[in-house]
């Protein structure tokens, strides 16, 4: 929608295809934090590609005021932002290797970018009132990181696109059409054909099946996109109160940490889980709901008296190597703009401008060329780091679930995880290093997709 609007504003003829109800989309279920520094982790800062992703988030943050202003002028929405700033808390639920180090990494990145923030007394954080066993140890306030009302944003984008001459087609693409080495349009599930000089797949977790139009040798060199299924809750608080800001923990257990985002009229967004799966999902597992409901006491012990108004399920687009797919998809006229995992909504103004420049043959940021879809696997950590991260985050999820074990059990469990995950890593590939989520959560389909992708690049990479 953002790219379509950007191109329509430039006077191009644009059609955006997709079902209006967005059954599998991540954005429709997103807490929509304008998260830049709040998403920082130690591993992100140690990786060249991770630091580039942070730089993209930082650039996107600077665009949001103008982006919001334009959308409000071109739609019937009166506001898109729902939170003023972000409070990051470090509480007693997590583990030092994840939560404490994550909290330090956020501060390190803020200092490096000279971004304003303030250390605050956790007792002074508005609204927060956790259970006594979950009280925060530290807290910081980041005034420049807000949140967006995702449904309002999607309505504004739709209205602005139409008012700028764009067309919205309430259907799904069944097939991308090629004529030789050039994309010529798409065939819809209704059978209708739309012809176009450029086709952009911004299709999230559904992307890979639409790449069947490409020759197999080329298709195998593009990392497949799988689903990071996430579950969140819309909760009406008992007293009708909301925090003025986002309140969140550092990232945990391969997810974006526990967070509360104010929406409106005493309703808060409580999120979110993350399970990497080969197929998109539309339902929530009981264990995921239990995790969110038990986690609520980390934020406010009175949430148990609130009401769950809606269960949200979305599917984040996760490429096999964990990094975005931005640019030409190996044939003329076919582009990918997806694979952004948890950053797509926040980065949308930036990515729309960058992709529009590429499509129109204008100057674009060459640094982002590393995310071209046809590429060797991006490896953001060593095998030892990958294994250690898999073990630590899996153990950390146990503490987040408030497990109660004999004191001598966690070391035995850690030894078992290290052995089992090590074998799984070797079975996936003895040389390439996937993101930890891809071999500890993943099913046989994802493991097979990884092997296919690695084999397509083994000779070219010198391995």
Automatic annotation (TrEMBL):
Residues 2-358 form the FAD dependent oxidoreductase domain. GO terms for molecular function: oxidoreductase activity. InterPro entries: FAD-dep_OxRdtase (IPR006076), FAD/NAD-bd_sf (IPR036188). GO terms for cellular component: cytoplasm. The keyword Oxidoreductase applies. Transmembrane segments: none annotated. The keyword Oxidoreductase applies. Keywords: Oxidoreductase. PANTHER family: GLYCINE OXIDASE (PTHR13847:SF289), SARCOSINE DEHYDROGENASE-RELATED (PTHR13847). This is FAD dependent oxidoreductase domain-containing protein. It comes from Dactylosporangium matsuzakiense.
């Amino acid at each position: 929608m953002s790219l379509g609007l950007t191109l329509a504003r430039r006077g191009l003829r644009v059609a955006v295809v997709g079902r209006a109800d967005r059954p599998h989309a991540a954005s429709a279920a997103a807490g929509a934090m304008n998260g830049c520094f709040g998403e920082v982790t130690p591993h992100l800062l140690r990786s060249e590609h991770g630091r580039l992703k942070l730089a993209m988030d930082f650039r996107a943050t600077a665009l949001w005021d103008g982006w919001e202003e334009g959308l409000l002028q071109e739609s019937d929405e009166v506001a898109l932002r729902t939170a003023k700033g972000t409070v990051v808390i470090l509480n007693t639920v997590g583990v030092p290797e994840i939560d404490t180090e994550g909290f330090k990494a956020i501060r390190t990145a803020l200092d490096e970018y000279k971004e304003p923030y303030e250390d605050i007394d956790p007792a002074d954080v508005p609204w927060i009132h956790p259970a006594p066993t979950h009280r925060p140890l530290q807290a910081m306030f980041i005034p420049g990181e807000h949140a967006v009302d995702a449904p309002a944003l999607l309505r504004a984008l739709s209205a602005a696109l139409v008012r700028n001459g764009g067309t919205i087609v309430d259907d799904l693409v069944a097939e991308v059409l090629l004529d030789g080495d050039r994309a010529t349009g798409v065939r819809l599930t209704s059978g209708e054909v739309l012809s176009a000089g450029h086709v952009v797949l911004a299709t999230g977790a559904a992307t890979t099946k639409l790449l069947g139009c490409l020759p197999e040798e080329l298709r195998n060199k593009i990392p497949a996109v799988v689903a990071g299924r996430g579950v969140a809750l819309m909760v009406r608080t008992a007293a009708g109160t909301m925090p003025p800001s986002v309140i969140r923990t550092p990232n945990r257990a391969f997810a974006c940490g526990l967070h509360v985002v104010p929406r409106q009229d005493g309703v808060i967004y409580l999120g979110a889980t993350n399970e990497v799966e080969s197929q998109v999902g539309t339902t929530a597992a009981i264990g995921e709901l239990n995790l969110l409901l038990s986690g609520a006491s980390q934020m406010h012990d009175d949430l148990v008296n609130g009401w769950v108004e809606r269960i949200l399920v979305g599917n984040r687009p996760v490429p096999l190597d964990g990094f975005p797919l931005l640019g030409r998809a190996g044939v003329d006229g076919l582009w990918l703009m997806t694979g952004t995992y948890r950053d797509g909504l926040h980065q949308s103004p930036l990515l729309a401008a960058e992709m529009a420049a590429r499509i129109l043959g204008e100057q674009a940021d060459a640094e982002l060329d590393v995310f071209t879809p046809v590429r060797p696997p991006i490896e953001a950590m060593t095998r030892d780091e990958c294994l250690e991260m898999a073990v630590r985050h899996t153990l950390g999820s146990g503490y987040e679930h408030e497990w109660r074990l004999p004191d001598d059990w966690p070391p035995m469990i850690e030894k078992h995880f290290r052995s089992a995950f090590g074998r799984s890593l070797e079975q996936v590939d003895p040389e390439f290093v996937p993101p930890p989520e891809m071999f500890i959560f993943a099913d046989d389909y994802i493991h097979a997709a990884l092997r296919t992708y690695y084999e397509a690049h083994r000779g070219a990479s010198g391995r």
